[in-house]
Amino acid sequence: GHTDILVGVKAEMGTPKLEKPDEGYLEFPVDCSANATPEFEGRGGEELGTEIANTLYRVFSSESSVDLKSLCINPREHCWVLYVDVLLLECGGNLFDAISIAVKAALFNTRIPKVRVLEDEEGSKEIELSDDPYDCIRLNVDDVPCIVTLSKIGYRHVVDATLQEEACSLASLLISVTSKGALTSMKKVGKGSLDPESIFEMMETGKRVGKSLHIALQKILDEEESLGTSRQKVGFLG
């Protein structure tokens, strides 16, 4: 619909977390543009931004989604921190699904420069960044899940709801699904209730839709990749 989202990934060198000394980590700063919808005037977008960020943290909390060990440079000392910046430009319904697709596409496109840790005779360590822009590592995004939102309207449920359909729905189920159809997390939103039978039915629909979503996304990403530098630039960053 009219949902417009921009996602960029920025890599910075940081220190690994104490509880995971041999892993890098991801951060999800979310910014909701005041122009996206009149509701975001003033501080209106902050609450939604926090909800989106918390949902992304939850989706990526699964250890299998991204190999965080590949982001470690030097255990306990240096690692890559990936800031996945989400900018919400326009709201036209089905936000979480669109954001998860954009995040997976941005991570697929991320290239992190290779670094070497050099140690001198005194034992002090120095980090050397590769000069070659093509000498880089890429993340494996095969297991990165996409979110499928199922909005319950009456006795049925819909996927990819428009703003009008969302207004008719009292309860929605957000499920994150991998490309193999595995369900990694689930969250209910809205004030209404869901009966167990509806939840089971929505989960089955979500898995089916999620698998086809991954296939379609991967096909487009591979097509773009094959074009290389001849790819047509689209949008205001083109």
Automatic annotation (TrEMBL):
Pfam family, one: RNase_PH_C
GO CC, one annotated term: cytoplasmic exosome (RNase complex)
GO MF annotation list: mRNA 3'-UTR AU-rich region binding
InterPro entries, A to Z: ExoRNase_PH_dom1, ExoRNase_PH_dom2, ExoRNase_PH_dom2_sf, Exosome_comp_Rrp42_subfam, PNPase/RNase_PH_dom_sf, Ribosomal_Su5_D2-typ_SF
Keywords: Acetylation, Cytoplasm, Exosome, Nucleus, RNA-binding, rRNA processing
Signal peptide segment: none
Localization per Swiss-Prot or TrEMBL: Cytoplasm; Nucleus, Nucleolus
BP GO terms, sorted: exonucleolytic trimming to generate mature 3'-end of 5.8S rRNA from tricistronic rRNA transcript (SSU-rRNA, 5.8S rRNA, LSU-rRNA); nuclear mRNA surveillance; nuclear polyadenylation-dependent rRNA catabolic process; rRNA catabolic process; TRAMP-dependent tRNA surveillance pathway; U1 snRNA 3'-end processing; U4 snRNA 3'-end processing; U5 snRNA 3'-end processing
Domain Exoribonuclease phosphorolytic: 1-113, 143-208
Family membership noted in the UniProt record: Belongs to the RNase PH family.
Subunit structure: Component of the RNA exosome core complex (Exo-9), composed of EXOSC1, EXOSC2, EXOSC3, EXOSC4, EXOSC5, EXOSC6, EXOSC7, EXOSC8 and EXOSC9; within the complex interacts with EXOSC2 and EXOSC4. The catalytically inactive RNA exosome core complex (Exo-9) associates with the catalytic subunit EXOSC10/RRP6. Exo-9 may associate with DIS3 to form the nucleolar exosome complex, or DIS3L to form the cytoplasmic exosome complex. Exo-9 is formed by a hexameric base ring consisting of the heterodimers EXOSC4-EXOSC9, EXOSC5-EXOSC8 and EXOSC6-EXOSC7, and a cap ring consisting of EXOSC1, EXOSC2 and EXOSC3.
Name of the featured protein: Exosome component 7
Organism whose genome encodes this protein: Balearica regulorum gibbericeps (East African grey crowned-crane)
Organism lineage string: Eukaryota, Metazoa, Chordata, Craniata, Vertebrata
